[in-house]
What we know:
The protein is an all-alpha fold. Helix content is about 75%, strand content about 0%. The chain is built from nine helices and no strands. It has helices at about 5-20, 25-35, 35-45, 45-70, 75-95, 100-105, 110-140, 145-170, 170-185. The longest helix is centred in the middle third of the chain and has 28 residues, at about 110-140. One of its GO terms (molecular function) is DNA binding.
Amino acid sequence: MRDTRAELLSQAETLVRGRGYAGFSYADLAEAVGIRKASIHHHFPTKVDLGAALVAAYADRYHTALAAIRADMPDGPGRIASYGQLYLGGVEQGLGCLCAALAIEGEALPERLRGDIATFFEGHLAWLETVLREGQADGSVRSGPEPAVLARYVIATLEGALLMERLFASPAAFSGTLAVLVDGLRPRTR
């Protein structure tokens, strides 16, 4: 049986990650899924409702991935490397991070979506801060910089690398940036 709602979310995510929120319409989405525009309104009465559902589904996927990383990787640098690998899929597909693509539109976005995106990134910052703080405590992450500052640095580096390597279609260059980032987090040896 066809899951139209799931198809709509999947295709809308691709459109937003490729074109931005303002760069697609329900007509584009209807064409991508092969249904009438009116059918979209049955599932998502407004574009804001669709955007909120996209962010929620994206956040849920990341939540699951972050829990798996914490369970599977024993140290801070390994966890950050695995976190960075989540971004690599976007580079390989020529797509940006959904929430970054939305955040770029800033004040042009409805307030509800700005709040949802801020919540998404706040969750990532908190997860990264915990990972980095634990890494400093166990000696796997260099001491010195505050974990909260390092968390912002990690996201800024990965989002910037994703944006640049999406333009250049270079997953290898993204992987190189990730390697330098992770190496810079390790304790310095003398």
